[in-house]
């Protein structure tokens, strides 16, 4: 069976939404009381290199690096064609499950992606 343009577009879109993310790095953050750890000032918390944590009410994961910088990973952005809709961020879930996703709109659920025929 040869894939149609719609099914190929869907696969590419889903692959891109899973593969893309936002990544950032901070300058080293060291506190004099614990020079061997990363210091996260917003919560006055200390983390060992390699240790990761999530931030309440944000869909990100932050990791302490060996240089005492923080690396943050977030969802990035996604887009959807007319037959799909974006499911927004769900902050009740941990990263990366909290990231927005796409789903097929209800009115398009009866279209067969292989034939583009509407099932009645």
Automatic annotation (TrEMBL):
Annotated localization: Secreted
Residue intervals of the Single domain: 38-104
One GO term describing the cellular component: extracellular region
Origin superkingdom: Eukaryota
Keyword tags: Secreted, Signal
Secretion signal, residue range per the UniProt entry: 1-21
UniProt cross-references to PANTHER family, sorted A to Z: AT09846P1-RELATED (PTHR39957)
Protein name: Putative single domain von willebrand factor type c
């Amino acid at each position: 069976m040869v894939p149609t343009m719609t099914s190929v577009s869907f696969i590419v879109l889903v692959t891109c939404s899973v593969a893309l993310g936002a990544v950032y790095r901070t300058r080293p953050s060291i506190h004099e009381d614990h020079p061997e750890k990363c210091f996260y000032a917003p919560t006055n918390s200390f983390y060992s290199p390699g240790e990761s944590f999530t931030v309440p009410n944000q869909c990100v994961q932050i990791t302490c690096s060996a240089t005492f910088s923080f690396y943050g990973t977030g969802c990035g952005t996604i887009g959807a064609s007319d037959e799909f809709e974006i499911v927004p961020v769900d902050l009740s879930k941990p990263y990366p499950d909290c990231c927005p996703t796409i789903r097929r709109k209800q009115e398009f659920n009866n279209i067969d992606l292989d034939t583009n025929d509407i099932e009645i």
